Amino acid sequence: MTQPVITNAKAAITDGKGHFSIEPITISPPQADEVLIEIHAAGICHTDYDSLNWGKPYILGHEGAGIVSQIGPNVTNVKIGDRVLLNWAIPCGECFQCNSGRTAICEKNSPVTGSMSGHATLQSTLHNGTPIARSFHLGTMATHTLVKQQAVVKINNNIPFSSACLIGCGVMTGFGSVVNAAKVKPGTSVVVLGCGGVGLNAIQAAAISGANTVIAVDIDETKFPIAKKFGATHTLLAAPDDSSLRKCAATVRKICADRGADYCFESTAIPVLGDAPLAFIRNGGTAVQCSGIEQTISFDATLFEWDKIYINPLYGCCQPQVDFPRILALYDQKKLLIDELVTTTYTLDKLPLAFQDLLAGKNAKGVLIIKQEPNPLPQH
Hints:
alpha/beta
């Protein structure tokens, strides 16, 4: 049976020069290993705002969840009608990194390598008759998107799409940085710098991992109630004149037996704080930069004294077919909070306001509701 061309789709499209608009797109049926997704919800991330200036047109968005609308002839992992969430670190399953278990940094398909091999057929998505790429190979800020089947993970529980979409970046990054990358041990002390979407998930992952001291640091004390709800045992307000957080680090040392924390996670994406986690940890501790700082920064070598480890994991070392079911299971057990991350929802045409609220720090996570659930599911 021939599958129809989607002629009534819409997407948020950037010109790559700082501007975006909601535009019609046309999507051809999926080929081979491709899947057409009807998007129901898309998360709003700082990376999405940054992508407005990536120098070329894109369909925006890299956090998404929805329903399988069409499948290519070689697709085996999902069927039409399945509820799914999307994963932007698309593993090929064949390269050196995938065979080493590091699928998030796949050498062939990962968008961070600059490769387009993880992208569904470029010519199948047209804007004004011209093929257009999808951000992070997904382009979730759209009514429909075409992706590789490796980008799709089936949802086998009743999590709302508005929550499920967040697993595909913010939840995974914070959770995985703690559980997969740092491997936080029970009975340890953890500091998390920044109480946004990634930071809150690092906080709750530390609590789930059994850390007995979890210290949330932020410049906005209104974020502390939710940080405590997510598992913070202590909160620490950074003073305006403490731009490098060295005063906060001194306070943490006193809390942590006058030696510093076992682990510190930087989740602010502020370049000047790139070296800050090292100041918070004890000798032999682990500092984790999980916010995606890519600018050139300077390090004071004395901060590494002594035997400290500094790591920069991508996407929480995600293995989607392992980690996403584990996260969904913890959600079902009411051990992992995801619904509570969704502060505000927006329709697609309200994306300008959503970006304004993002930059103002108003939300733990903002979410675009592209299409309402066909049969609304009970909240967690």
